[in-house]
Design brief:
Blueprint lengths: L2 H9 L4 H46 L28 H4 L14 H9 L11 E9 L2 E11 L4 H7 L3 E10 L2 H44 L1
Antiparallel strand pairs: 1-2, 2-3
Length: 220
């Protein structure tokens, strides 16, 4: 090619836009799809966490009564009612409260499982839901784990090293009325034990005094 024509070809800008677009457009398209898939996964993470939080909150605020509706909290009987299956002192007998001390006052798992299983007929979550109940000296907690498959292309899931989306939420269970009732019962029971101990001590002292008197009379 002659030098003049080569210079003219270098300065010619015709087709430059098409060439640049053919290089940049695939890169922009790939980046756009990656961003879209990332937002889809992020949205699924948020919805999974929201689902776990909702389940934990509803179980927590209806925990005081196994007959409460899991969604609205409506119920027909109070636990103090003789017809209620939970019983007045379910916090002790049906809440695994004394398991830390290796003491069981009843089939705890029946009541706790009944309260947890209320979510089965609540909503069709479409995800795997696991609920764990924990009760110890530090308090009562509900742990909810929600697992769901990632709704994204397989190559993207493999690239992120994730096949399922998981969200774990822990909710504290607070039942002030039951706590006050148990504290009141414990205080009353403790006072009765102290009174029984004092009476037994007085009876023992009286018996010893009578025995000593009889012993002294025998010596005389």
């Amino acid at each position: 090619m002659e030098p003049g024509k080569l210079t003219k070809f270098k300065r010619d800008e015709r087709g430059a836009f098409t060439l640049e677009a053919s290089i940049l457009f695939p890169m922009i398209l790939i980046m756009s799809f990656c961003l879209i898939f990332f937002l889809i996964v992020l949205y699924q993470k948020v919805t999974t966490h929201h689902m776990a939080t909702m389940i934990a909150e509803h179980i927590s605020f209806t925990w005081s009564n196994s007959e409460k509706d899991i969604e609205s909290g409506d119920f027909e009987y109070y636990t103090s009612d003789p017809e209620h299956p939970d019983g007045l002192y379910w916090y002790l007998t049906g809440n695994s409260a004394l398991h830390e001390f290796q003491i069981s006052l009843g089939p705890d798992n029946i009541l706790t499982n009944k309260k947890i299983n209320r979510i089965n007929g609540w909503k069709n979550f479409g995800s795997e839901v696991e609920v764990e109940f924990e009760n110890n000296i530090l308090g009562t907690k509900i742990h909810v784990m929600v697992k769901d498959k990632i709704h994204a292309p397989k190559f993207l899931a493999n690239m992120m090293g994730m096949e399922t989306m998981q969200a774990r939420v822990t909710e504290q269970i607070n039942v002030p009325t039951e706590f006050i009732r148990v504290v009141d019962f414990t205080a009353y029971f403790s006072l009765r034990l102290i009174e029984m101990r004092r009476d037994m001590k007085n009876d023992a002292n009286s018996a010893i005094a009578i025995f000593d008197k009889k012993g002294n009379k025998g010596k005389k």
